[in-house]
Each structure stands twice: as structure tokens, then as C-alpha cells.
Amino acid sequence: MEKRRIRLEVNGVVCGLITEESDEYMRALAQEVGEMMQVIQTASPYITREAAALTAALSYCDDARRNGRQAGQLQDRVDELEVEAEVFQEEKAAGDASDAELIHTLREKADALEQENGVLRQTAEHVRTLETTAARLERENAELAQNLQALKEENRALKETAAAAKTVSVAWQPGKTYRNPLRWEDGDNPELVSFFAKE
Questions:
Q1: What is the mean pLDDT of residues 179-197?
Q2: Domains of the chain, residue spans
Q3: Helix axes 49-94, 100-169, angle to 10 degrees
Q4: Is residue 193's pLDDT more than 60?
Q5: Residue 7 contacts residue 14 (beta carbons within 8 Å)
């Protein structure tokens, strides 16, 4: 599939991503991340949206690493079971055909090993899929972190603009009485020239 740009909204933040995945898949990921951020914000009401996004990213990265370790362990177990199956096959071939009870026991063991091996292979395949998803999420988290940095800079600029506007608005204070310098109640202002004759 060719790469294309898609716009997603994650918990109120709109971001653009370049991906090969379908729109439905990317929207599902965005919804999952948004839901996790909402859970984090509900659990910690005073946490910022940026901190909730970073917490969600750390959680996904942690899951990815754990799944990677689990995949390695499962692959090791699959390798062990394959060796055991080979040994079993050799033992079965070399066994005494006249011992029906031993053959029956070995067959049951082989069936159990084959079933366990099949389950482990499916699990290993699932873990490999999770690793791929985790790698993609790490890339998306990096892009989200860049978007968050841009939002922080924009927020800082807005705060500076608001502070400047507040400083300008201090010049006029509603409700305060201001004096007209052309009208003096306590006598003539020596700095002003009057065109009226003094009595």
C-alpha cells in the first residue's frame, strides 16, 4: 500500500499522520488512544492533556516491550517442543511394536505436545502482530510528541499575548473616577492660562 496523509482527532487534538494503514484502522487506534487518555484524566483530574498523552504513550511502549519479551519466551518454548517432538518421533520409531501400552502412552504424549505446539505457534504469531502494532504505535507516539511540543509552543505564545493584552488593559480601569484637568475645584491651576478675567 502507498503512504498517504490522514487527519485524526485524539482526545480533542487534531494531528496529521502519514501511514499505509486504512482510515478505519487509524481511526480505531486514535479512538483507543483517546479513550486511554480519558481514563487517565478521569483517574487524575488535575493532569494536563499533554501529560495524559505522554502517560498513554509510555503505557503502550511498556506493553510493546513486555509483548516482545513474551514473544521471545514463547519462541524458545516452541523450539523446545519441536526438539521434544523430534526426540519423541525417534523414540517412537525405535520402540518395541509389541508393547501396545507404551505405544498408546507415547501417542497421547505426542498428541498433547502437538496441541500445545499449535497453541504456542498461534500465540507467537499473535505476539509478532502485537510487536508490529507496538512499533507503529511508537512511531505515532513520536509524532504525537512532536505535535504536543508544537501545541506547547503555541500555548506559550498565547499566554504571552494574553499577558501583553492584560498589561495594556491596566491603563483604563472601569468604575474609577478620572479628573478633568481643565476643571479645578481647589483653585486655579498655575500651569493653565485662563482667558477669563479673574474677579
A1: 54
A2: 4-156
A3: 170
A4: no
A5: yes
